[in-house]
Specification:
Among the domains are: 156 residues, FAD/NAD(P)-binding domain (3-Layer(bba) Sandwich); 81 residues, D-Amino Acid Oxidase, Chain A, domain 2, CATH 3.30.9.10. It is built from 8 helices and 21 strands. Strands 1, 2, 11, 12, 13, 14, 20 and 21 form an 8-stranded mixed β-sheet that branches. An 8-stranded mixed β-sheet has the order 8-9-7-16-17-18-15-19.
Length: 355
Amino acid sequence: MPPRHTDVLILGQGLAGSALAWRLAERGVSAVVVDRGGVDGAGRPSASRVAAGLITPVTGKRLTVAEEFDTQWRSARDFYRRVESEVGESLLAERPAIRLFIDDAERARFDERLLDDEFQRHTRLATASELPEAMPAPWGGFVMTGAARLNVGAYLAATRDRLQANDRYLQAELKSEHELTVTASGVAIRRLGVTARLVVLCQGHAPGLSDGRLAPATQLAPAKGEVLTIESPTLRDARVVHRGVWIAPDESGLPGRFRVGSTHTWEDLNSTPTAAGREELVVRLAAAGVSDYHVVDHQAAIRPATSDRRPLSGFSEEAPRVGWLNGLGSKGSLWAPWYADRLAERIAREGLESP
């Protein structure tokens, strides 16, 4: 059983909670992680378990480089390499991704963006031999040289195994935030027999602490995303290819198996896959010139995004023993190590008595 007292109690072992546990351990701060076991409240895989783990420097229709990408990418790469050395397993693949232009206008936008030095550092025009053989690319495409992919499932499993080996993991679900007792001197979950100096909530879009007593000032603006797993006799590219959808080799390594995503909806916020979501991805695949395949799986999850697209990281003014690391949205694999590092440093620097 985990120790009855710890420095920090982390609720949630997705990308945010896992990164925070590692970052605290780097600083000699003890932590116990409480998690449902990788599922959401409906018993389906949580958002982190559905995540494809894509790290991409250029995103969106405007072809913008993510803010502070270089700093966050260095932090993420160094972090995952250290975790790999700890667990003896390969988790992060650094491999250029390719994005195909959808029309002349997007190609012209790319040429304009090349005037920006930062954009140039992360991209170059793809040569004819670099274009995917199985997908038409009449306008060409560009290579994103700073792209990478985290094997999220393997990373979360390795983290859980390490926590369990050190008696730092509890599989349990909190039905109400009233199960979490917060006082001026610490926090406790009586049912689990665990006390701590601080608690950090890393539970995604539906934390299970629902009556608002511990809600952050900035509320989440979650979005539902759906992904397909397909098998195709013609797709062979080992890279992640973007063309209206992303198409990524399945983590299983099975030849011809790929994951395809993803949709974005802000209604019907549950983890049930929908016919509309499947149809949207099928239509996008057709637009990308992919038709020879069959669907072998269809998943949905709720991304814990925020209205300003900035993660929640910090402590409550009303309840200073309560903190958050949440709202990572679709950039969890990139953002989690950096934001967890900052939060762990704050905890270690300012002390556990007054965060």
